[in-house]
Amino acid sequence: MSNGFKIFSGSSQGNPSSSDPVRENLVEQNAHPNGFKTSVFRILQRFMSASKIDGGSRTEAEEKVYSWLYALAQSEKDIVFEYVRSTERGLSFTEAERRLQENGPNVPVEYTFPSWWHLLWNAFFHPFNIILIVLSALSYIANDATNGCIMLGLVFISVSLRFYQEYSSSKAAMRLSEFVKCPIKVQRCAGRVVQTELLVQVDQRDVVPGDIVIFEPGDLFPGDVRLLTSKHLVVSQSSLTGEFGTTEKTADIREDQSTPLLDLKNICFMGTSVISGSGTGLVVSTGPKTYMSTMFSNIGKQKLPDDFEKGIRRISYVLISFMLIAVTVIVVADYITSDDLTESILFGISVASALTPQMLPLIVNTSLAKGALAMAKDRCIVKSLTAIRDMGSMDILCIDKTGTLTMNSAMMVNHLDSWGSTKEKVLCFGFLNSYFKTEQKYPLDDAILAYVFTNGYRFEPSKWTKVDEIPFDFTRRRVSVVLETDLNVKHKSNHTFNRILITKGALEEVLRVCSCIEHVDRGEIATFSEEDHKRILNMGEDLSNDGLRVLGVAIKRLETVRLILLLSPSCFYFLLSVLFQLILSHSMSSKIAIWTKVEEVIYLVVPAQRRSSTGIYDETVECDMVFLGLISFFDPPKDSAKQALWRLAEKGVKAKVLTGDSLSLAIRICKEVGIRTTHVVTGPDLELLNQDSFHETVKRSTVLARLTPTQKLRVVQSLQIVGEHVVGFLGDGVNDSLALDAANVGITVDSGASIAKDFADIILLEKDLNVLVAGVERGRLTFANTMKYIKMSVVANVGSILSLLIATLVLGYEPLTPRQLVTQNFLYNVGQIAIPWDNMEEDYVKTPQKWSLKGLATFILWNGPVCSLCDISALLFIWFYYGAHSESLFRSAWFVEGLLMQTLIIHLIRTEKIPFIQEIASWPVICSTVVISAIGISIACTSIGDVMGFTTLPLSYFGFLVVLFIGYFTVGQIVKRVYILVYKTWL
Known about the structure:
Layout lengths: L4 E3 L13 H5 E3 L9 H12 L10 H14 L3 H8 L6 E2 H11 L12 H9 L2 H15 L3 H26 L12 E7 L7 E7 L8 E4 L8 E13 L1 H4 L5 E3 L17 E2 L4 E13 L5 H6 L10 H32 L2 H15 L4 H18 L2 E3 L3 H8 L2 E4 L11 E7 L6 H13 L6 H12 L10 E9 L4 E9 L8 E12 H6 L1 E6 L4 E4 L2 H16 L3 E15 L5 H16 L3 H18 L19 E10 L4 H12 L3 E5 L4 H11 L6 E3 H5 L3 H10 L2 E3 L3 H13 L5 E4 L6 H6 L2 E5 L4 H6 L2 E3 L5 H42 L6 H14 L24 H26 L5 H23 L13 H19 L2 H5 L6 H29 L4
Helix pairs in contact: 6-8, 7-8, 7-12, 11-12, 11-28, 12-29, 13-28, 14-28, 15-16, 19-20, 21-28, 28-30, 28-31, 29-31, 29-32, 30-31, 30-34, 31-32, 31-34
């Protein structure tokens, strides 16, 4: 064993009975040579004995990361160094190399997608495919190559479609590698010699726990970092939260357990970036041990099993079981009557083939592909075809507010004085501050400029000249500019400059530097009273509760500068005299004093655009200011959002908002678009709940704000597992990837993060919820058409098998030869190909449709015997009316009757209304059934029938068929109405 601590050990070695995440990250292999501080053990003991507060079902890896980062956030810096076995000088190059070998490259966890052969196997390994291959092999053995080829062709088509679908949707790869391609500034030491620290650049892949990193604006954090020093540090955590805004970080703070993880001020996370400021930090986690990697480690593993696919497989096993029983009985019965075992086995194979819904995979995939093409016309890319079907079952849509319900941009609302009245002066000075601000302009500055320009205000910024700027930082939370204007522009040699300081920023911070308040209407300035201060803060709080962002505006008049030197003869003589003084002066201090005077004159003479960038004002000038008023901003909702949500609600899809934004802002948006806000909750509140309370709160709440990415995931899973809902999730940020992956239907937009698009099932080319409404309708239509095929094929096949069994026992010979039976079944399957193009009643698509096997057996028991009754009626008529002891005549008549009855089943089952009267099928379905019926009749009544063993049928038989099918149609419709009355459903 080596000395020290094993960094981020995956298993506990110090105490096998301990499962605490902090202890597992700090496994002591041998005691520290200098001894480990007693306070460290006390702190660790406190953390290990603390009770867990869990709002959901965090994974073990998440618990480890949470406990580890909270331990660091609550510890002093010297203890943090002890935790990771590092020093204030950084790691030595030798130690860094050793840790790199031990911990591996600093690469986030990436999800490995299934290989192509794995996908091909999954597409192939389906019960129906296996049974068709077995039947095909038996057909070849029995010298029925035609039947074998047909079944193999069907298997090939269905497997190819399935494989192409899965392969296309699995080619996405997680693009977290973009975070590991930038150089990182790291402090390393050359050895044990003092003052040998070196600042080196290493690739992010080579950063290890214990490294000290130096960062500045634009840098990415290479791992989870505990801050050591910070200066006005502002970071963007949008890669984790996806929400608008930045976060202030500071090193000189000790956090407590009640602070949400992403709100920890002294911890920065891998993948986040520096917006402004600088600092140093100690890397405490790298690679798969970081918060980001833990967050994404379960991507690809969160999907719940597809209920529809499970249902299809259950039907497969049921039908296979029924088929084996029925085929065995039929083979035995046929062998008893014919004494020909080979012919009986071949007949049994044909019966098994007829009972198998051979077109099911093809029909399902064709229906889904048709839905995908239709959604593509609505500018919607469907990556996973099964998502269309799931959209039909979706009953809850979780929405990330930013950019979905709103425009994801700031819009200025109003400019108010200290008493809540709209005043132009407040807007004027707020505009000048934003206009002359040269530091990075934030969206709020753009909103002010857009408001002024679009509303025709003329504030004439050209009359002002910028003198200096005091940039924004998150300690002051305000920005100031110093402007001046010439009060005597007509006089060429006598200029008077009026200087003014304009400050804009967070309301409470602006109020902090104000000592006066201006009555804008009266032009009076009064001393700031406690009552004024309280009134303005209450007004700002009311605006914030309405979901508005608020900035305060204040001004301060600086000294008036009178300049007479500019362009006058005296200026020339002054500069000339200074030049002689510089030449004649011998001491350096005298020259510096003289040159300082020249600089002062040049500063007054040279225009602001040509001065040095070094300012003459700092934040100390921000005092004794006059408060003018407030400017409010709003992220406006989309015009289409309210209408789309209303249409989704009409179709039984409830909306829940899951956002990282503040609760007040989320409530304001939801009220604007019509989402109820009776029950709301925040992420920190969810963390305090036990599991049962968590599930109950999630079920009841419609607005869930300030959520972390893992909380969004747990909310989606709670709705799926406990609530048994089919959940869609619409989000576009990296922070939404977990929920997108876990949801039944993951939806993002084309402008979203690349990772979000990788794991979404559907990509919207436009941020318009109305596209989802159309998708829900198409999903339910696809589901309906799939259920039509399943029910009509199972009913027809089960009814036919019962008829074949009875006929075999009664006639003493095969009712249809294997070739005739396979041909009839093939024609019937071809006639069903048009089902994906069928339409559906409006009432059906108004409610979510979920897969259920509960009613399928009942449906078959009610409708299958009606088919058998029709077949047996035809058998009796043929036998007694025509005396059809001729096998060829009977088989011709039964072949035509069976095929026509099966095509009629398509129209009878496809709707709960009266076919051809109250509801007519789409023209592709009508054409396909008519064509197939015509082909079947022509086979039996033409020379083709001679090859098949048929004979010409008398015309009177077709008259009987008309009467028979009217009777079947009537009985079938009566059974349908009674079934609907009893079970309140049809498909």
